[in-house]
Design goal:
With 384 residues, the protein is an alpha/beta fold. Helices cover 48% and strands 14% of the residues. The structure holds pyridoxal-5'-phosphate. The site of pyridoxal-5'-phosphate (PLP) has 13 residues, from helix 4.
């Protein structure tokens, strides 16, 4: 095993960012192909930037964010936070009492690591389920969480979504939805309703997933609950700062459903090209992915000392280093999924031919076959 813990993941991320910097300096930004689907966009005019003072900025942009945020998520009140993880943490800090239960339902395990970590910090008891038959709400439960779309973009069934909300409300327990990518994936691609319109009490989404905003989190929901969460978030500095809020407003205004719908159509063609050489690719709503276990099967290198996840990290690093292709396992925060997704709704995806992308993947895979035989070499590629 090469990548064993959060510290290893941090080192891997720092190495990736160094590679990205080198590529930009030597070959230029055009050599990079960011297919993460996380844009980290920062749209702002110079007039807007001039208004970024500690108290003036929030007065203007928080007001606009209430309007744009409610259009996007519904609900009574919006609260912007530093990251989706910060929104999850603030919600659990505000609503979960010591020794009470938090139950989480999602279409496919595991849930985002910030959920279990936050529950541990408040000494709550955490349970997660991906089978509706096994799902149950124990006594002394303070919060029910639903993930609308998982880290790997597996999307929740809308009927089960409604049933879980009903079960929670029958026991007077608030429902919090982690709709990081789901707020757009579920609604645009699967024609589902907004989480709050399905009856949830609070929702959080990520402002850089599948939309041209900065990395940040947007909470929405019932005013009394949002206020409670806001107080906690302010106590610990989890709220979004004015520059982030400005870029969130403009990201929301610039969001186009069209990009997601185009990717939804293009992915089938990409899959059929890839399948001429590989059996490891699966469809996602807006692209394709390789799960670590499928990559391992494709490599078929029985004497490799690498775990499935190591192989996925190694492949992501080779894709970046050799071909400039950025995927989440190369640059992610500790605990994120090791699944390699190629998101065709990403800006850079519209600038490259699918055949060329396919050739880059083939060439990186051949390199992976070589390097995966040698653990020391693999370690060097991942950590430098
Ligand atoms: C991305 C993601 C998060 C966390 O987003 P951050 O920006 O890393 O805080 C939480 N939940 C799900 C389902 C996600 O996909």
């Amino acid at each position: 095993m090469i990548v064993n813990n959060s510290l290893d993941e941090l080192k891997k991320r720092e190495n990736s960012l160094k590679i990205v910097k080198e590529i930009i300096e030597v070959k230029g930004r055009d050599f990079l192909i960011d297919l993460t689907g996380l844009s980290g966009g920062f749209i702002a005019s110079s007039e807007e930037l001039n208004l970024l003072e500690t108290y003036v900025g929030p007065a203007i942009f928080e007001y606009e964010l209430q309007i744009e945020g409610i259009k996007h998520l519904g609900g009574e009140k919006i609260f912007p936070v530093n990251r989706t993880s910060s929104g999850i943490f603030a919600t659990i800090l505000a609503l979960v009492s010591k020794d009470s239960y938090v139950v989480h339902f999602l279409s496919q395990l595991p849930g985002h690591p910030s959920i279990v970590r936050s529950c541990n910090l408040v000494n709550g008891n955490y349970l997660e389920f991906d089978s509706f038959n096994e799902f149950h709400i124990p006594d002394n439960c303070s919060l029910v969480i639903i993930t609308g779309s998982t880290m790997d973009h597996n999307v929740m069934d809308e009927d089960i979504f409604k049933k879980i909300i009903q079960m929670a409300h029958n026991k007077n327990i608030p429902v919090f939805v982690d709709d990081a990518s789901g707020a757009r994936l579920r609604t645009v691609i699967f024609n589902q309703k907004k989480a709050l319109d399905l009856g949830a009490d609070i929702v959080v989404t990520s402002t850089d997933k599948l939309m041209p905003g900065p990395r940040g989190g947007l909470l929405a929901g019932k005013k009394d609950l949002i206020d409670k969460i806001k107080v906690k978030a302010n106590q610990f500095g989890l709220e979004a700062q004015p520059p982030l809020i400005l870029a969130m407003v403009n990201g929301l205004k610039a969001f186009k459903e069209e990009n997601l719908l185009n990717a939804f159509i293009k992915k089938e063609k990409f899959l059929s090209i890839l399948q001429k050489n590989f059996s490891m690719f699966k469809l996602t709503p807006t692209g394709v992915m390789i799960k670590p276990e499928d990559l391992s099967y494709e490599v078929k290198n029985k004497d490799t000392e690498l775990s499935n996840e190591d192989l996925a990290f190694l492949f992501a690093m080779i894709l970046l280093k050799e071909e400039g292709i950025i995927t989440i396992p190369a640059v992610s925060m500790p605990g994120a999924s090791a699944t390699i997704r190629f998101d065709l709704s990403a800006n850079d995806a519209s600038n490259i031919e699918l055949e060329i992308l396919n050739n880059k993947i083939i060439s990186s895979f051949n390199k992976l076959l070589e390097i995966s035989k040698n653990k020391e070499e693999a370690k060097k590629i991942i950590f430098d």
